[in-house]
Design goal:
The complex is a heterodimer of chains A (235) and B (399).
Chain A lengths: L7 E12 L2 E13 L4 E5 L6 H8 L7 E6 L2 E2 L5 H11 E4 L11 H11 L4 H14 L15 H13 L5 E5 L7 H18 L2 E5 L3 H6 L2 E6 L2 E6 L6
Parallel strand pairs in A: 3-8, 3-9, 6-7, 7-8
Antiparallel strand pairs in A: 1-2, 1-4, 4-5, 9-10
Helix pairs in contact in A: 3-4, 3-5, 4-5, 5-6
Chain B lengths: L1 H12 L2 H39 L3 E6 L20 H10 L3 E16 L2 E10 L3 H4 L4 E4 L4 H5 L4 E4 L1 H8 L8 E4 L2 E9 L4 E2 L2 E2 L3 E5 H8 L6 E6 L5 H14 L7 E5 H44 L1 H9 L4 H37 L9 H27 L3 H6 L2
Classes of the chains: A alpha/beta (235), B alpha+beta (399).
Chain lengths: 235, 399
């Protein structure tokens, strides 16, 4: 991992799918880079390719053309196991629908990434409890998801995303299933994690209020980058 | 690995009823394998015990020539029957055998005062008692001088005693056998049933007296035994040589060994066990299909979970193991339960119906458990591979 270069470097990235005979170009040559500690929102209308971009940035998918480097690793050249290891080490995911394991306590949900990192059971629990403390849910550690509110579930998911101290927090519509007030709390949590831990936060969203809170916006339309800079007024 | 096991158990406990029903298929399969094979094994052990109880080095010479040494019906159309002289010759010249007894088989009504019983009458010599491992309880067995002087004396089987004398002592009492007058000189110890034949429901008289009684000039067969198991082939050769010499080289008789009999029965019961095993395996296969079905459903239901696990760093191998172990855990628990149930049933059978021959051998326990394990692996492979090969993006999007 290079400590000096940007955390993420996307250059001329293309991603196309074949649907029957037709080739759908979801991303058409996008270039940008994100440094460590940045707080970026990727925005755009639905169908703009932001979900595709989020899977690319999350190393869940690889480019059709162009390159994506995460912490110096050329993602397109890695095999499936290496991608899994890269995700485990560098990325924490936060999803719109939380995606917690049912019938599994908060602490065990949070500890899941550490299990695939080969951390022992005892240490996993301890670190998961720390992460839950950090998101303000230390007292609910033994609750399964169905005994937590929506906001609490998302906090558990965030704890899971930061438990392995990743460089990148990648969030997909993180407030999409939450009401306004709870959503604001979650946004504040991202901001404090970004400020206190120095973790790079990338949020994929179509929520303008959320985008305005980010220091930088990357806007995609029809798979192309149309804006990269501070939030624009009147978005 | 232990971790995978624990999470497999957790995943199963999340849907206990489904896991239990899935297990039931394997439980029944293993139970069927265990019980049916135990019955087969029991039958074999029973036959072995009974036959070796008769005397394992036992040899018998029957008239007529049969090519095989199997256990067939006695050959008919005797050109040259066996006689008392054959018995004497063997007794004098045999070096690899211990004891020779003639045997004359017949049947008749045994009568004491106003009571009577139709039973089997065996004309024998004194050596018969040791050869066949059948001894008197009180009084004496047929003696050499009884045979020599064609004495009309009889040794009664237990059942005959009970029917004719009740609690009275039969020793010295006169009885009528097929019309002839005999004096009771002994009572046999109880032997019970063997191969469906009641060994207590017969009487022994001197072979010569039997020949007189039934009007025969020959005996039915010769009973003898090799001195040891190893000497059996030598003993057979010697008997053939001695008897053939007395017949100018003509081999008009057949020597049957107990071992031939054991082999024949062993082959029959072995084949029976295999057939039962094959039938029982079918239910195990059905159980395996049940597991595969449920695992496929489970993989589909948990597609999202698989996506999340992949996102946080699980490799395909991790996912493969997760589902494979779940399947194996179901099947091995099912196998253990089936085996336990089978063992319990066998234990109860031993306890309450000791006559029924069932044996739980360690090998069948191992086979049953092993095949349950294998069923889990085989039925888990396809669902687990399907789970492992899911595309993470597709899995996360799955509704």
């Amino acid at each position: 991992m290079s400590e000096t270069g940007p955390l993420m470097e996307v250059s001329a990235l293309e991603r196309s799918f074949t649907l029957g005979e037709e080739e759908v170009r979801a991303l058409r040559g996008v270039t940008f880079s994100i440094d460590r500690g940045e707080y970026v929102a990727i925005i755009g209308p639905s169908g703009s390719g932001k979900s595709t971009m989020m899977y690319q940035l999350g190393c869940l998918d690889t480019p059709s053309r162009g390159t994506y480097r995460l912490a110096g690793y050329d993602v397109g050249s890695l095999d499936d196991d290496e991608l899994a290891a890269l995700r485990n080490r560098f990325i924490g995911f936060v999803f719109q629908s939380f995606n917690l394991l049912a019938r599994t306590t908060a602490v065990d949900n949070v500890a899941l990434p550490l299990r695939y990192a080969g951390v022992g059971m005892r240490e996993r629990r301890a670190r998961a409890r720390e992460a839950l403390d950090r998101v303000g849910l230390g007292h609910r550690w033994d609750h399964p998801p169905d005994r937590l509110s929506g906001g609490e579930r998302q906090r558990v998911a965030i704890a899971r995303a930061i438990v392995s101290k990743p460089a990148l927090l990648l969030c997909d519509e993180p407030t999409g299933n939450l009401d306004q007030k709870v959503g604001q709390e979650i946004v504040r949590l991202f901001e404090s994690l970004n400020a206190d831990l120095g973790v790079t936060v990338v949020i994929v969203t179509h929520d303008p209020s959320m985008a305005r809170r980010a220091r930088r916006n990357i806007k995609l339309v029809d798979g192309s980058l149309v804006h990269d800079g501070p939030p624009q007024e009147g978005v | 690995m232990l971790e995978h096991m624990i999470s497999a158990l957790l995943a199963l406990s999340a849907n206990k009823l489904r896991a239990a029903l899935t297990m039931l298929g394997v439980v029944i399969g293993v139970l069927a394998v265990t019980l049916l094979v135990s019955v087969g094994d029991g039958a074999r052990a029973y036959l072995n015990n009974t036959l070796s109880g008769i005397g394992s080095n036992l040899l018998s010479v029957v008239p007529g020539r049969t090519e095989t040494r199997g256990f067939g019906p006695p050959a008919q159309g005797l050109e040259r029957p066996l006689t008392m002289d054959d018995a004497h010759a063997l007794e004098r010249q045999g070096t690899t055998i211990r004891g020779v007894s003639p045997m004359v088989q017949g049947g008749g009504t045994v009568r004491f005062r106003n009571r009577q019983r139709d039973t089997m009458v065996l004309g024998v010599g004194p050596a018969f008692s040791d050869l066949r491992n059948m001894h008197v309880d009180s009084g004496e067995f047929v003696r050499e001088e009884d045979v020599g002087s064609r004495r009309r004396v009889v040794v009664l089987g237990r059942r005959v005693v009970r029917e004719l004398f009740g609690d009275e002592s039969p020793l010295g009492q006169p009885v009528r056998i097929a019309g002839g007058r005999f004096r009771v000189i002994g009572v046999m110890e109880p032997k019970g049933r063997s191969l469906g034949f009641d060994l207590d429901d017969l009487v022994f008289i001197p072979a010569t007296a039997a020949m007189d009684l039934f009007g025969l000039d020959h005996i039915s067969q010769l009973v003898t035994a090799a001195r040891s198991k190893e000497e059996t082939p030598a003993a057979i050769a010697e008997i053939e040589e001695v008897l053939a010499r007395r017949r100018n080289g003509e081999r008009s008789f057949t020597v049957q060994s107990q071992e031939d009999l054991l082999k024949t029965f062993g082959a029959i019961t072995g084949a029976m066990t295999m057939v039962l095993l094959a039938i029982a395996s079918i239910s195990l296969v059905v159980g395996g299909i049940g597991i595969m079905n449920i695992m496929l459903v489970s993989v589909r239901e948990r597609t999202r979970e698989i996506g999340v696990r992949r996102a946080v760093g699980a490799t395909q191998r991790d996912i493969l193991w997760q589902f494979l172990l779940e399947s194996v855990v179901i099947s091995t628990i099912g196998g253990a339960v089936g085996l336990g149930t089978g063992a319990t049933i066998i234990f109860l059978v031993h306890r309450y119906a000791p006559d029924v021959p069932v044996v739980l051998s360690p090998w069948i326990a191992a086979v049953a458990f092993g095949s349950a394990f294998a069923t889990g692996v085989v039925s888990g492979v396809v669902p687990a591979r399907r789970a492992a090969r899911l595309d993470p993006v597709e899995a996360l999007r799955y509704e």
